[in-house]
Amino acid sequence: MPNVAGFGALGFERAIVRLEAALREHLPAPHRRLTTEEVKAAYPSRSFERGWRIDMLCSDDVTRQIDLLVTRAFPAGYPRTALVNPPDMLTWPHVERDGILCLLPVLAEVDAEDPGQVGLNLIGRSARLIEELLVGDIVERDFREEFLTYWFYASDVRTKVTSLIDPVCPSRKIRVWRGEDMVVAGENEAQLNHWLVNRFGKRSGKKTFHTESAAFLWLPQPPLPSDYPQTGADLIALATSAGEVDAAILADVAGAHHKDVLVLIGAEGRGGAGLVAATTTAARKISSRDGHVEKPLTKGFTAAGMPPAIAAARVYSAARVLKSEVSRADAAWVHGRGKDPRTARLLAKQITVIGGGAIGSSVTARLVRAGVGTSHIVDPQDFDWPNIGRHELGASSVGKNKAFELAARFSQDFPHLAITGHNVGAQRLIDGYEDLLANSDLIIATTGSWDAEGALNRWHVVNGRKVPILYGWTEKHAAAGHAVLIEVKGGCLRCGMSPTGTPTFKASLWADGQNTVEEPSCGNHFTPYGAVELGHVVDVIAETALGALLDPPLASRHHIWLTGTARLEAEGAMWTDNVTLLGEDLAVGQKILSRDWPARECPACALAEDALIAAE
Amino acid sequence: MDDGVYFMKADLVGDRGAEMTSLQARQMVRDAVDDGGFKRKPEVRPNCVRIFYEKGYHVDMPVYRKVEENGTTVYELASSSGWKRSDARDVTKWFDDARSNSNDGAQLRRLVREIKKFARSRTSWSGSILSGFGITALVVDCQRLNANREDRALYDTMKAVRDRLNYNLVVAHPVTPNDFITSGSDDAKARMLRDKLSQALTWLAPLFETDCTRSQALDCWDKVYNTTYFSERGEDEARAAASYAAPIATSAALIGLESYAGAAVSSSGGGRHA
Ligand SMILES: [Zn+2]
Question: Residue B266 belongs to what H/E stretch?
Answer without folding.
Answer: strand B265-266
